[in-house]
Amino acid sequence: MIFPAQEYRDRVARLQTAMGARGVDALLLTNPADLFYTTGFLTRFWESPARPWFVVVPGSGAPIAVIPSIGAELMGRTWLDDIRTWHAPNPVDDGVGLLADTLAQTLPARGAIGVPMGLETHLRMPMADFERLRARLAPRRIVDATDIVQRVREVKSGPEIDRIRAICAIAGRAFARVPGFAAVGRPLADVFRDFQIALLNEGADWVSYVAGGAGPDGYGDVISPAGAQPLQPGDVLMLDTGAVKDGYFCDFDRNFAIGPASDSARRAHAALWQATEDTLAALRPGLRACDVHALLWQGLEKQGATPASGRLGHGLGVTLTEWPSFTPLDQTPLRAGMVLTLEPGCMLGPGRMMVQEENIVLHEHGAELLSPRVPAELPEVLA
Amino acid sequence: MIFPAQEYRDRVARLQTAMGARGVDALLLTNPADLFYTTGFLTRFWESPARPWFVVVPGSGAPIAVIPSIGAELMGRTWLDDIRTWHAPNPVDDGVGLLADTLAQTLPARGAIGVPMGLETHLRMPMADFERLRARLAPRRIVDATDIVQRVREVKSGPEIDRIRAICAIAGRAFARVPGFAAVGRPLADVFRDFQIALLNEGADWVSYVAGGAGPDGYGDVISPAGAQPLQPGDVLMLDTGAVKDGYFCDFDRNFAIGPASDSARRAHAALWQATEDTLAALRPGLRACDVHALLWQGLEKQGATPASGRLGHGLGVTLTEWPSFTPLDQTPLRAGMVLTLEPGCMLGPGRMMVQEENIVLHEHGAELLSPRVPAELPEVLA
């Protein structure tokens, strides 16, 4: 386990307080992040879609794990005592009976089971099994628990912030190595590979996400895998990573000019830097997510840059991205303890953008950087 | 795109034939594997749970992508022409309206929309949005399409098999490097890190899965991340990987004795090897998944080994694991073109197991190995 049991007890107590306030008798959790958050169960085995995994959080007391037997040994090393298993995958009953029995014992015959069903969630179990479960448990109701889980998970504890700080430092050291392997003529795929190796060498446990791009004065998108095209003089190279240490993510990018930077690339980089700088100074609990979008957007316009559409940052923690989203529509209030990314982007021309990203934790008095600050001037990688 | 457009047209035509036979007017696909399979859309951005992505396969013609605008550029490089986007995440309507309109245009007012809902599936969109979609589309029905998708995807084309062969060869070369970095006193976490670096150096695009264990004469489970404990003389070290090249996975493991192997470890390794050897010789299309389980189980018993519970192999391709599952209950018939893992495990004592895994493709005449065959004797890593 990454944290002492008390850390998980505190998390579950916060969930239970929110459940009580909303009349929810038990939570049913199915996704890797929620299971890791409540139990400490950490594995890359989620990469296999074959088996569902369940954790039931009752109204009081410790959660109950209802999981495939292949995970019993690893779950047995967490703080949970009540671990119920079946042999999965089972085409006749893949855990539904065991889960229904567990829930039926846990909550009253007219109780409410909370399941996260809203924005930025999905249920990691077969839909047909969910419908079977709902029928088995009637007249108990299944209700949306998105708000319960998100309001608790979004405020990070000190030990969580320390873990995110650690992986941000690892990624910062890996980014510092980029000029050693990004050179004119090197295929982007090789640069991506070397960057992943640098992240591992600097201490990442694994690298769940790398994306980026390279093109004259910018790139067309920010989610592409690498192609075979070699870096060219005049390219702006962007690398973005969600590397993982102890189950916690960083999520930030860096830009590099390949050869001397053009004036427009330099100006775009400076505009993004200044918009971030101004927003960092203004961030306070009580602002809403949409206010941060406005700060960044207006900051870019003030610098004469054309803001890119899309969200301009988001939450961060046990997944690469978490709510809230810095969009014009997200009204989520910022709270002390939130770990967030600021991710302004601007357009340099049709299909040419530049994005800069930082990771921060919000305190009562304002933002603390977790990523090493982007340099004020666009770094140049010279041959 | 990894393959020419014709490869995707062929896949979609096979899906449409199966849809026609079952009275399904359109398929709604939501997960990374199904989108990659039908369109060629490949990104690690799925690591962000923030946004849903949709592909609609109509009864005839090319699929329609209904996706967040952040993916428009990358989807535009696939063979699809009809790409509809919205700005996500949107707390008011996160693509449901656009998707409902698209489906309503695509199928008749009393048509059937197929969604994979069965074993080894899940729906990657918010449950509340799925319920909204269902209400919006009534009286159109949503029906289970698990069988349609699985029967098509499970038979790999020649170009797909070539990709899996390539990543198997990469992982084979990385496993050959293990004696260079697995040594007495090295923490398991460092061994995992070096193994990932070896996979990247040998040509993997990224490493989605590494698990393993080490202990005297075996390990307690096969899904754990690495701990800080150093390797000890007498340990059996197992490393298992799902590395990725061009979106295709390998999934196999290897065992190494740290110092001279004990008799019981050597015997277990030999029993697993022989059970695999006998099963490789017996594999033919027409056997069912449960028959393969029986072959491996009985092969282990014949060698005097105690088989481990759980599935003893599975499908493989665009995810780390695919159906069918080699369990006593899975009746799926084997067909030529399936790519499969054989994964027999045996117990050496309480909480001590050994697992050996190979990757194969099934032809009409029998199995072809894709992974380099496990050596008949347990390899020893000597100081």
TrEMBL record, chains A, B:
Domain Creatinase N-terminal: 11-155
Protease is among the record's keywords: yes
Pfam entry (one): Peptidase_M24
Keyword terms, alphabetized: Aminopeptidase, Hydrolase, Protease
Record domain Peptidase M24: where: 163-362
Entry superkingdom: Bacteria
Keyword NAD appears in the UniProt entry: no
Any one GO molecular-function label of the UniProt entry: metalloexopeptidase activity
InterPro entries on file: Creatin/AminoP/Spt16_N (IPR029149), Creatinase/aminopeptidase-like (IPR036005), Creatinase_N (IPR000587), Pept_M24 (IPR000994), Pept_M24_MAP (IPR001714), Peptidase_M24B (IPR050659)
Record-given protein name: Xaa-Pro aminopeptidase
Source species of the chain: Roseibaca calidilacus
Lineage of the species this protein comes from: Bacteria, Pseudomonadati, Pseudomonadota, Alphaproteobacteria, Rhodobacterales
